[in-house]
Each structure stands twice: as C-alpha cells, then as structure tokens.
Specification:
Number of strands: 6
Number of helices: 2
CATH class: Alpha Beta
Structural class: alpha+beta
Strand content: 25-35%
Radius of gyration: 13 Å
Number of domains: 1
Low-confidence stretches: none
CATH superfamily: RutC-like
Order of helices and strands: EEEHEHEE
Mean pLDDT: 97
Shape: globular
CATH architecture: 2-Layer Sandwich
CATH topology: 60s Ribosomal Protein L30, Chain: A
Length: 125
C-alpha cells in the first residue's frame, strides 16, 4: 500500500514529486524540504531562520500523516556551507529533542532556489 501525503500547511512540491509517501501505513518518506513558507516564499534571514522554516514544514507534513518528530528514524541534512553546521544543529536539536534519529549532513554546491539548507526524513510508526 502506498499513500501520497499532501498538506497545504507546507509548501507545495516544486516539481513532479510528492511532499511525502507513506508505505504499508508504517513508514513515511518525506521529500527534501527547503525554507519556503506554505505560500511558496523563501524565508528571509540566515541559517537559523531557514532551518526553522524547514523543520516547520517537516512538522506540518508529519502531522498531516499522523506522525511526530519522535517517529523520525533517519534524517539527511544538505547544507550550502558546512560553516553553518553549528547554527543549523542548534535549531535541529530544539525540534528533535530526545528523538535523535540517525543523521547524515552533507555540504552541497547548490540547493533549489539557492537556499542554505534542505532536510529530508524517513519516519517509522
């Protein structure tokens, strides 16, 4: 069983993909989220503001699908500049708390719309 997850409380997909896909009612794969508001505007500010918006988007999609941050098993963080790791990590820790999923953080040359951060997650019930 495969279910498409879509919420208006997070930005719409920018291309031919879904915000999330749930499989077997127990695993949720979220597309990478960038710091767009649900209206599709890039959040002004630096890595702190952008990471906050990304995690708010993830929260909205998780909630719509019946999941929480504590269900996240794996996160992948893409940073435009690894020098922003500590600031991103500070915001990330506030949202993930004790959940502490497995995580990879990768510096990339460029992200969609030239944002500073993108995060994708896999959650499990």
């Amino acid at each position: 069983m495969r279910k498409v997850i879509s919420t208006t409380n997070a930005p719409a997909a920018l291309g031919p993909y879904s915000q999330g896909i749930e499989t077997q009612g127990t695993m949720l794969f979220l597309a990478g989220q960038i710091p767009l508001t649900p209206a599709g505007e890039i959040v002004a500010g630096g890595i702190t503001e952008q990471t906050t918006q990304v995690l708010e988007n993830i929260s909205a999609i998780l909630k719509d699908a019946g999941y929480e941050f504590s269900n996240i098993a794996k996160a992948t963080v893409f940073l435009k500049d690894m020098n922003n790791f500590a600031a991103m990590n500070e915001v990330y820790a506030k949202y993930l708390g004790d959940a502490k999923p497995a995580r990879s953080t990768i510096e990339v040359a460029r992200l969609p719309k030239d944002v500073q951060v993108e995060i994708e997650v896999v959650a499990v019930k």
